[in-house]
Write a structure and sequence with these properties.
The protein is built from eleven helices and eight strands. The protein is of the alpha/beta class. An eight-stranded mixed beta sheet has the order 3-2-1-4-5-6-7-8, with helices on both faces. The protein is globular, with a radius of gyration of 19 Å. The model has no long low-confidence stretch (mean pLDDT about 95). Bound molecules: acetoacetyl-coenzyme A. Acetoacetyl-coenzyme A binds near residues 119 and 231. It holds the Pfam family 3HCDH_N.
Length: about 280
């Protein structure tokens, strides 16, 4: 199966990043969201990223235009009726995802692959909302998508080997490194990352050290590019809490209990960089 046309559902930070790398690799990409303003916002993020490449001399203005020309704005999922793969990057909520997948299943051509960029929700359960569970798969990109090399590819219970192989080849064509993972809560990435972030928030909550000190320990001591508290603000504290809850529900083990301070910040609307305030404050 040859992938030529892609739809990305959700034009936020992740969806726009995925659309950008797909368009840069030469695929025709529909960037879809519920309203024009949301899609426009996604296009702006992409244009800013590409402008930075042009300024740095890594891309010419013509190359940038070529990437932009591969991108099509979509506010109607009916556009999925002639694509080869749909990558869903909408809100992390099982109800919403099931609704999207069931609708896409009705519209998309029979051969089309339905992929989800979910960071922790079970692919098998999302697949069960469709009549083609064998063509449903997880394609988990990392933030920021244009920079991070990993794509975690998650096999649902029914995922076809052929579908896995097509998605693996596509990830490589995007310049990414695919890693195969089975469907368990949090997969590998967030099962390992989130408890570390949660524990960093516990050390802050218990007064073990200041936020700056905790981040400094992990940056200088473990060579992490950013400290876990800074990273939590980048990912979004609401997303971190949601993933911890998914792990806690999925495994039922106390070691995944979200830190009360994380809950408190989310309840206060301190969601991280995107709201100007999370664990840190942003100018
Ligand atoms: N979008 C596009 N490009 C970006 C970017 C963004 N949001 N942020 C930074 N960049 C680019 C910069 O333009 C720069 O590009 P060049 O090298 O081409 O000049 C490059 O990234 C490095 O940026 P900086 O020099 O400004 O800063 P840095 O050295 O601190 O690197 C970083 C930034 C790559 C984000 C680095 O800090 C990092 O790797 N942080 C950790 C990121 C991480 O862990 N991501 C995974 C999060 S978990 C996840 O995504 C899964 C989930 O489900 C929650």
């Amino acid at each position: 199966m040859d992938i030529k046309t892609v739809m990305v559902v959700g034009a936020g930070q992740m969806g726009s990043g995925i659309a950008q790398v797909c368009a840069a690799a030469g695929y025709k990409v529909y960037l879809n969201d519920l309203a024009d303003e949301l899609v426009e916002k996604g296009f702006k993020i992409i244009e800013q990223n590409l402008n930075r490449q042009v300024t740095k001399g890594r891309m010419t203005e013509i190359e940038k235009e070529n990437v932009m020309e591969n991108l099509y704005s979509s506010t109607d999922v009916i556009d999925a009726n002639n694509v080869d793969i749909i990558i869903e990057a909408a809100t992390e909520n099982m109800g919403i995802k099931k609704e999207i997948f069931s609708k896409l299943d009705e519209i998309a051509p029979q051969h089309a692959i339905l992929a989800s960029n979910t960071s922790s929700l079970p692919i098998t359960e999302i697949a069960a909302a469709t009549n083609r569970p064998e063509r449903v798969i997880g394609m988990h990109f990392m933030n920021p998508v244009p920079v991070m090399r990993l794509v975690e590819i998650i096999r649902g219970l029914a995922t076809d080997d052929e579908v896995y192989e097509v998605v693996e080849a596509m990830a490589k064509a995007l310049g990414k490194v695919p890693v195969e993972v089975n469907d368990f809560p949090g997969f590998v990435s967030n099962r390992v990352l989130m408890p570390m972030i949660n524990e960093a928030i516990f050390t802050l909550y218990e007064g073990v050290a200041t936020k700056e000190a905790i981040d400094e320990v992990m940056k200088l001591g473990m060579n992490h590019p950013m400290g876990p508290l800074t990273l939590a603000d980048v990912i979004g504290l609401d997303t971190c809490l949601y993933i911890m809850e998914t792990l806690h529900d999925g495994f039922g083990d106390d070691k995944y209990r979200p830190c009360p301070l994380l809950r408190k910040y989310v309840k206060a609307g301190r969601l991280g960089k995107k709201t100007g305030r999370g664990i840190y404050e942003y100018g």
